[in-house]
């Protein structure tokens, strides 16, 4: 029994001593875990960076021993550059300054850990500042073609991209560049041009920069002597019979054509090898300028040359009365919607047919449309005051003449569907000095004035045409498509 007690006591004493040793050991040792010293780095062997606004390089270090990072270049800085504590994962951010030089540069980051043999080296290559200088060819290439040259100075690899086939014969379309940006000469060979003057672009491109310039080659020359860059001929007036002669410079014999869609109002002819005559045969009846085309072609057929188109611009024959908020003009169609303003013709009306073509009419209440034609001296005039649901009057009169008038009353259903109003003014009889005035609406003769109206146009230069919308609240409006005057002698 005594022996058993003795053994138990000895075991208790041994246990207490073991506990005391362990406690002392944990208090005295470093916080580093037991085991071999180790460092792990997930950085690549090398990185590349842009010259301007380079992106940061980021990697991680995991270590159970203190470590340091040293950069051999001031422009390349790692943060942090040493461990703050062991047994932790640290994110390393490497920042770089802009490279303002013309050469690439290299920085090396050396990573060391205490108690660990060897080092880790990370290489960072930063590109040089982009330097691309192109001295373009800026002369006109002759019609017969030939070789032209330009120079490229670049410290980066480059390539040339042509925009069109006739510029594709290039002796070298790419290059590696050089750090000193020494100029290289490039040769482009152009074929002969049998067609019109043509132009294309060459683009010199590096990874981050490009330069584009235009090469123009002469061809068939048919151009305006006064302004070779222009292809627009503006007519001197808005009426019929307006003529304009322009001088033409050409290196081929030429002819002129008027497309069918413009032959109703436009003529063109060659007066000589250097003179072109353009004539308008009708007055512009739109509320905006109208533009037609003529085509200048070579007399001999040349493959690939379809001619040069010239625009012929004729001004509108009307001027607008009142503020712009009282009308709207559709520039595409030439139609005008009037709410409370008037229109006056730039030409003088005499005897003949005057036709108003409408897209729509919308008369409400007591609003009305006024048509008024009068000689400049004011001796005689005739007019139409056109109402809906109220008496309209077609009137002619003047000093020394008997007034004559016809009236009619139409409903809004009748007035608001009208598409065409015509005024016909002719001699009552051949050789007579008396006139007959007729009002024709949508092809129907509505009123005739023939009360011995003396012809005022025998001595007067003619009458401007005036028409307008009379409305108090803009509730009424009409849209006129065109005004056409066909004079008679």
Describe this structure in words.
The chain is mainly beta and 489 residues long. The protein has 4 domains: 39-126, Immunoglobulins (Immunoglobulin-like), CATH 2.60.40.10; 132-217, Sandwich (Immunoglobulin-like), CATH 2.60.40.10; 222-314, Immunoglobulins (Immunoglobulin-like), CATH 2.60.40.10; 318-487, Sandwich (Jelly Rolls), CATH 2.60.120.200. Helix content is 6%, strand content 49%. It has helices at 2-28, 412-415, and strands spanning 39-41, 46-49, 57-63, 67-71, 76-79, 88-96, 105-113, 120-126, 132-135, 146-154, 158-162, 174-175, 184-190, 198-205, 210-217, 222-224, 232-234, 242-250, 254-257, 266-270, 275-280, 290-298, 308-314, 318-321, 327-329, 336-338, 342-349, 352-362, 368-373, 380-387, 390-398, 404-410, 420-427, 434-441, 444-454, 463-470, 477-487. The protein has a 7-stranded antiparallel sheet. Strands 25-26-37-28-33-34-35 form a 7-stranded antiparallel sheet, with no helix packed on it. A 4-stranded antiparallel sheet has the order 1-3-6-5, with no helix packed on it. The N and C termini lie far apart (160 Å).
Structural classification: mainly beta
Strand content: over 45%
- How many structural domains does the protein architecture include? 4
Q: How many helices does DSSP assign?
A: 2
Mean pLDDT value: 85
Order of strands side by side in the largest beta sheet? 24-27-36-29-30-31-32
Just give the CATH class of the largest domain: Mainly Beta
Runs in which pLDDT lies below 50 for 5 or more consecutive residues are: 1-32
Question: Would you identify the CATH architecture of the largest domain?
Answer: Sandwich
Radius of gyration: 46 Å
Domain BACON: 65-127, 170-218
Protein name: BACON domain-containing protein
Keywords: Signal
Signal peptide: 1-22
């Amino acid at each position: 029994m005594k022996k058993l007690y003795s053994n138990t006591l000895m075991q208790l004493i041994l246990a207490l001593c073991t506990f005391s040793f362990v406690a002392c050991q944990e208090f005295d040792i470093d916080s580093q875990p037991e085991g071999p010293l180790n460092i792990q780095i997930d950085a690549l062997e090398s990185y590349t960076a842009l010259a301007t606004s380079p992106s940061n390089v980021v990697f991680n270090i995991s270590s159970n021993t203190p470590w340091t990072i040293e950069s051999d270049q001031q422009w390349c800085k790692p943060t942090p550059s040493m461990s703050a504590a062991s047994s932790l994962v640290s994110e390393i951010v490497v920042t770089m300054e802009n490279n303002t030089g013309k050469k690439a540069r290299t920085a090396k980051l050396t990573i060391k850990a205490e108690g660990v043999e060897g080092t880790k080296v990370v290489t960072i290559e930063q590109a040089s500042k982009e330097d691309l200088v192109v001295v373009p060819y800026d002369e006109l290439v002759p019609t017969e073609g030939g070789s032209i040259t330009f120079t490229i100075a670049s410290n980066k690899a480059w390539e040339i991209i042509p925009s069109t086939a006739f510029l594709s014969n290039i002796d070298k379309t790419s290059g590696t560049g050089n750090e000193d940006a020494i100029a290289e000469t490039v040769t482009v060979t152009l074929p002969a041009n049998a067609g019109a003057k043509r132009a294309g672009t060459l683009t010199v491109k590096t990874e981050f920069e490009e330069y584009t310039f235009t090469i123009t080659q002469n061809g068939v020359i048919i151009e305006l002597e006064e302004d070779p860059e222009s292809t627009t001929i503006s007519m001197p007036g808005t009426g019929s019979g307006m003529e304009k002669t322009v001088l033409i410079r050409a290196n081929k014999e030429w002819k002129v054509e008027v497309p069918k869609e413009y032959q109703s109002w436009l003529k063109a002819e060659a007066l000589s090898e250097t003179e072109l005559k353009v004539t308008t045969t009708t007055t512009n009846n739109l509320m905006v300028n109208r533009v037609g085309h003529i085509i200048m072609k070579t007399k001999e057929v040349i493959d690939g040359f379809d001619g040069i188109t010239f625009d012929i611009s004729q001004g509108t024959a009307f001027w607008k009365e009142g503020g712009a908020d009282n009308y709207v003009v559709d520039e595409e169609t030439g139609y005008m919607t009037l709410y409370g303003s008037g229109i006056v013709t730039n030409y003088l009306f005499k005897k003949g047919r005057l036709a108003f073509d409408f897209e729509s009419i919308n008369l409400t209440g007591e609003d009305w449309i006024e048509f008024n034609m009068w000689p400049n001296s004011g001796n005689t005039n005739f007019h139409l005051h056109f109402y809906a649901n109220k008496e309209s009057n077609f009137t002619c009169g003047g000093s020394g003449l008997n007034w004559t008038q016809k009236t009619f009353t139409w409903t809004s259903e009748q007035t608001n569907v009208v598409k065409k109003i015509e005024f016909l003014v002719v001699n009552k009889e051949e050789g007579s000095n008396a006139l007959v005035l007729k009002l024709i609406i949508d092809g129907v003769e509505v009123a005739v004035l023939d009360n011995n109206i003396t012809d005022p146009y025998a001595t007067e230069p003619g009458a401007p045409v005036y028409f307008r919308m009379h409305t108090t609240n803009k509730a009424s409006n009409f849209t006129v498509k065109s005004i056409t005057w066909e004079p008679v002698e």
